[in-house]
Amino acid sequence: MIQGIQITADGDISEVAVDHGYKALQAVVGGVIEAVSSRSGQTTLWAHEEAKIIGLPANPVGTLAWWLLNPAARGRDYLSGTVLITGGADAEGRTLSIGAEGLAAVALIANRAQQRSA
Fold it and tell me: What digits encode the pLDDT tens for the residues 23-82?
């Protein structure tokens, strides 16, 4: 199982365990998968590849996580629909569970959201 963080377009953040493989990742994001990576390659964000084309709502929290993890993407693109954050890949190309880098980005976002609502 791959441990990850799921972020819905509504901003709900939850821990998930996902089976290895393409179909399991598709089930989380609701369709064809697209992977975008952190600058370091230690974290992968999975999203629906056709989300914008089929009109899925923008995912501001998932986008913010991506921009924190890969500043080169900031302001250039955004993610839509449900986003799954995992680790990078091992030497055989298998997806790894989320690591410290991805967890730190999610924690920063969650803490800022709590501060704003207080």
Answer: 999 999 999 999 999 999 999 999 999 999 999 999 999 999 999 999 999 999 999 999
> Residue holding tokens 């290895």?
20
From the list 93, 3, 10, the residue with the least C-alpha distance to 57 is 10
Contact yes or no for 44/95 (Cβ under 8 A)? yes
At residue 60, what are phi and psi to the nearest 5 degrees?
Answer: -65, -35
Position 113 scores a pLDDT of 67
Which residues, at least 6 apart from 10, have a Cβ–Cβ distance to it below 8 Å? none
Taking residue 48's Cβ as centre, other Cβ atoms within 10 Å add up to: 23
Q: Which phi and psi (to 5°) does residue 16 adopt?
A: -135, 155
CB atoms within 10 A of CB 110: 13
Token pair, residue 26, equals 């598709």
CA pseudo-torsion sign 112, 114, 116, 118: negative
For the residues of 78-117, what is the DSSP string, one character each?
A: --BS-EEEEE-B-TTSPBPPP-HHHHHHHHHHHHHHHHHH
